[in-house]
Each structure stands twice: as structure tokens, then as C-alpha cells.
Amino acid sequence: xxxxxxxxxxxxxxxxxxxxxxxxxxxxxxxxxxxxxxxxxxxxxxxxxxxxxxxxxxxxxxxxxxxxxxxxxxxxxxxxxxxxxxxxxxxxxxxxxxxxxxxxxxxxxxxxxxxxxxxxxxxxxxxxxxxxxxxxxxxxxxxxxxxxxxxxxxxxxxxxxxxxxxxxxxxxxxxxxxxxxxxxxxxxxxxxxxxxxxxxxxxxxxxxxxxxxxxxxxxxxxxxxxxxxxxxxxxxxxxxxxxxxxxxxxxxxxxxxxxxxxxxxxxxxxxxxxxxxxxxxxxxxxxxxxxxxxxxxxxxxxxxxxxxxxxxxxxxxxxxxxxxxxxxxxxxxxxxxxxxxxxxxxxxxxxxxxxxxxxxxxxxxxxxxxxxxxxxxxxxxxxxxxxxxxxxxxxxxxxxxxxxxxxxxxxxxxxxxxxxxxxxxxxxxxxxxxxxxxxxxxxxxxxxxxxxxxxxxxxxxx
Length: 462
What we know:
- β1 (about 1-5) and β2 (about 5-10) form a beta hairpin.
- This protein is α/β, with parallel strands linked by helices.
- Helices cover about 55% and strands about 10% of the residues.
- It contains 17 helices and eleven strands.
- It has three domains: about 1-135, no CATH class; about 140-245, NAD(P)-binding Rossmann-like Domain (Rossmann fold); about 265-330 and about 340-455, no CATH class.
- The mean pLDDT is about 85.
- The chain has helices at about 10-40, 45-65, 70-75, 80-100, 110-135, 150-160, 195-200, 220-225, 235-245, 255-260, 265-300, 350-360, 365-370, 385-395, 410-415, 420-440, 440-455, and strands spanning about 1-5, 5-10, 140-145, 165-175, 185, 205-210, 230-235, 310-315, 320-325, 375-380, 405-410.
- The protein has a five-stranded parallel beta sheet with strand order 5-4-3-6-7, sandwiched between helices.
- It is globular.
- The longest helix is centred in the middle third of the chain and has 36 residues, at about 265-300.
């Protein structure tokens, strides 16, 4: 994993992304030369065309990121790659038309762009085929020694079975006799020196996953390993890096107190986030204004009641506020049943409301909550007070998600399907805590771009 702006990104995907960015640049160069030479037009110097080349590359690359082409499962499925690549190319052509209309000095002929996308499609598919064959090579995987052979260590072994795991466990060391989950683990007494053992295995990382640390932690040996340049991780740190979530099981308050994250309250971060929220909200408002007006009209025509729906939610530091959404349910839908989790084929939802929810259009009016300062564009989803009280009793650290403003979209929404139970809320909290800990404007931008993928492929809609 590479850490970019506090966010962990698989090294293999970084290399793939850089390769495909070069493919896009080469494609537009080939496209320009082929088209211009076909009509006996002099090809201008590369540096003169560099701004247009970079613009083309950036637009197509962001479109590819937005439709989910850099998800691990997509990188390993050529059919999914092809379908999403077509969606990305179609979207990028529409965006390019707008960008080139606003900035004609960057104009790329449509014929050149079309030829370039054909070259890009071939190059990207070849890159993905190569990627599938080399991503599992040891050069991309870190070699890890795990201290522990119990249930905690078994989580690492289970995660390693995933083809996209960025590590390879070269040895488990049994620290106590009652650690029996991993039969092949090497007994601690058989390892004379941890750093020599790691050197022999060409391992560069240790993960502390022993069940009981008191009396079993080889502190002096781990210090020697650290001084020799080896990386040492607690299990929670390791799982956070590999999964993009914070494991709740075994989590201690000291994790929050001594962690290197949770810097969203710094003045500069707060300023950047607020500017990002305002800019993103105004841009979305401008782009979706026709959709908003049409939706408002259809809501009024298809069911009795107001266009907008206001409901009390819990915001930053537990402060209540009223979220604004397009009404997607019948009026007084909960008079008899009381507050309920949403469910599949929810009878409270109107026919047109179902379409609004499927396309996420019902969420767009929350931009007014963002502009007023009650919400952020990106953050944990705001929950109703009655559910917050219930969940805070059952799930440890649930209240910590309220340390930041709630958002229209969030890290949990990208990584976990729609949930309507306490267990689902627990799983989503693990992603919310990752966001709260590792917040950055870069992560906000990444989440915002990838939200397009959730809308296009209907991940987590209910």
C-alpha cells in the first residue's frame, strides 16, 4: 500500500493508473498524427499541443475513476472493465464537448478524440490483461511475519485469501500455547531472533496479532527490528490499511487518543473543506437545475403533498438539524408504523419516489443543507435521532462518527451496500471511522468522483 494524503492506495493500482494515464496521452498523440497526416496538415509540435493532451487525459482518466474502473473486482474482470470503459468514454466525450466550448484554445477535433479513444480502448484492455497476470507476483506483495496464531491472526489469513490482498504472510509465530487457530504456526521458542528470522524469510513487516500481550510481547527484539528498518503494525493498523475501514472488535479508546489522524478540526483543513463544500454544491446545483425543476413538478403531479420533505437528523457533535430531500414517500407514511428502517419494496414509497431513490435524485436538495453549513458534501450519512440513541447503546464508538459534519455521500456509501439493521450500522461505522480518522480534501474529492459509480451501477440503493 502507498499512503497518499493519509489515504491508503494499493501499490498495484497506482502502477496501473500511471500506465493507463500514459496510454491515454500516447493515444491522443497517435490520434492527432493519424488524422492530421490523412488530410496533409502539418502536425504542430508536441509541446504546443501539451495543454490539450493533458486536458484530454485528465477528463478520460477521471471518468474512468468515476465509473469504478479502479476497483479491485473490476481490474480482474475484463467484461466489467469493457462495459465500464465504454461508459467512461461516453461520459468523457460529453464533458469534453462542454470544456472545449468554454475553452476553445484547448479544442481537440472530435475525429481526433474518436481515434484516440479507439487506441486507448485497445491499450487499456491489453494493460488489464497484463495486470491480471502480474498483479499477484511477489514484487507487488509485502512479505509479512505475524506474531500470533489465534483468532486475531486468523483474520489476517482470511483476508489474504482475497486475490487483491497486497501482502503475503511468510510465517505465523505462535506466542502462547492456547493459540491454535493456525496449526502451521511456528512456536515462539523455536525463533531465536526475530530480526534474523525475518531477514531469512526476506520479510519487511511484523503484525502484532497475539491474543494476549502481557508477558508475551518481545519488546527488546521488536525494537531491534524497528531500528533495522522493519515496519511493525498493530492488528488494527494493519486491517485499516488493507481494508479501508477501522475494525471495531478489540478497539480501545487509546486508539483515538494516540492516533495520528483526527485532524479535521485544524483551521486550514476546516477552511479547505468548507470551500470544497461550497464549490461542489454550487456546481451540482447548476448542473442539476433542470432535473430538480422537472422532479419537483412530477412529485406534485403524481402524489398529494409537498415537494420537499424535512426530517430531523443528528449533525456534528450531536446537534439536531432538519435535512431537506425530495419527498419520495406518501404523506404521513409512518403515522401507524412509527419510525422504521427502509426496506426493499418499501410500501411507504410512491412509484415516482422509487425512481427518485434509485437515481439518488431525492438526495440532491441536501445541497441547501451543505450551503447553510449543517452538512458537508462528504461525510457520514446523517441518521435520525431515534436510531442514533438505539445504535449508540449497542455499538461502541458510534457517537464518534458525529465528530464531523454529516454528508450527502461518504466513504461508507461507496464501500458498503445499503444497510437496515444494527449489524449493518456497525459495519458502516467501521468505514465512517476510517473517514473521520483519515479525512483530507483529496479523500473528499476521491469519494465525490466515485459516487458517480454508485449512481450508475445502483450500488446500495434502497
